[in-house]
Amino acid sequence: MIKVDVTRDEQQQIRRIEARGHAGYAPNGEDIICAAVTAVLTTCIAALTDLAGIEPLTTIHEGDIMLELPDPEPLSRQQQAQAATIMSVAALGCKQIEFSYGQRYVSVKDEQTQAQPSNR
Question: How many domains does the chain fold into?
Fold first, then answer.
């Protein structure tokens, strides 16, 4: 199964998407579900880079893809808006794959990060 974790910040903006594992729908190299998730997330990386001018932190290995937005502070408002849209579309794409093929093959967990307690 592919496990997709979507992590949001306190403002509900998606900051990170990570996919791990193999769907097991078909043999490696022939698995359309693995190919679909890979296509969605690599397109997200390309859109962030080529359209929004943002260099996300990325890790791509066999069966694992992680992308994380950099600190939003130096980004323009337009870049922040573009990043929010691109990341939301990628998360939605993964959720649609889960809906179409079932949680037996893809499981998407979408959660907000917890605010760190203050040291007061």
Answer: 1
